Amino acid sequence: MEMTLDALPQPGSKRVPDLDIGDNGETVLELWCKGGKGQFSVAGNSIIFIAGKIEDRNCPAARAQADDELIAALGAATNWKRQGDLITFIGPKTLRFRLNTN
Description:
The protein is built from 1 helix and 8 strands; from the N terminus they run βββββαβββ. Helices cover 16% and strands 46% of the residues. It is of the alpha+beta class. It has an 8-stranded antiparallel beta sheet, covered by helices on one side. Strand 7 (86-90) and strand 8 form a beta hairpin. The longest helix has 16 residues, at 61-76.
């Protein structure tokens, strides 16, 4: 499953974070600047996300901070739901992703 964060690009960039989640929960993350791997575990509507190695890529401070906050929000999410092409991760911060259907 490939999905893109329902957000605007950071100033000076066209990138928007996306996740590519494999059949066994293995995840490739491409964030506003950083990138890396992680693992999702799903049981019903409950989820656990564990970040793996994340590459720094000499990011500008604002993008690096936004990437770190997004990784933390994914790690804090405890539930998810799907409505059509919209996937919502629910935790202290709600994150919405759109499935890439092209």
